[in-house]
User: Fold this.
Amino acid sequence: MWVYCPAVMRTFRLILSYDGTAYAGWQVQANARTIQAELEAALRQVTGEPIRAVASGRTDAGVHALGQVVSFSSQTHLPAEVLRKALDANLPKDMVIREVREAPDGFHAIRDAIRKRYRYVVQDGPMRDVFERAYAWYFPHRLDVQAMQAAAAVLLGRHDFSSFEAAGAPRASSVRTIYELTVQRRAGDFLDRIVVEVEADGFLYNMVRNIVGSLVEVGRGRQSPAWIADVLAARNRKLAGMTAPPQGLFLVSVDYGW
Assistant:
């Protein structure tokens, strides 16, 4: 006897890496190529379903990701690893699926995130690294990393980061907690680079790029490390440094506590 078995909706967590150079950011846009549009096209190709993919954060044009986390629901019967391979085969070569796994019902990539980690790369000095042009901010003067680290230490902890929030995406609160913020000079194959790593319980719009732009003001000697404390206390975006360009920014990882 034939028995009807209704399809079961399954929730998935996907980890995605991408080179954001050729994209107008994460979010679907009319007349623009985006990460979300490419991923949703692959999901439809593999599952036959119109699926909305929700990312942990909407990266801007030119921004990259090592570990973007995406949640979505599907009635597919494919095992998670088979789904990963099928999706990967239908994505452009500048995107790769690192992992697909089933998640608890109701899992949401934005709401359930408890920490995020970003990396920003600056290549400084009189000679630019042609191989880093899409993955680092080239700054033509040598920067003082020790001064930048001293300034970065001021931002640790829970603060109102209004001074580092760009207009255009207002939040109910500008208070965030930065757990780690480091500035290090690292050797490269051709030239060395400065790597800024920051981990927090959440980020405001362009917060990382605005922090980096302010740290560079300190590194180039235009401001002292103590200046950062004054900027933070002022809660005024106009007093902070410039917004660092997008190509040096990488979303490294997102933590959900499981």
Notes: The CA atoms of residues 151 and 228 lie 6 Å apart.
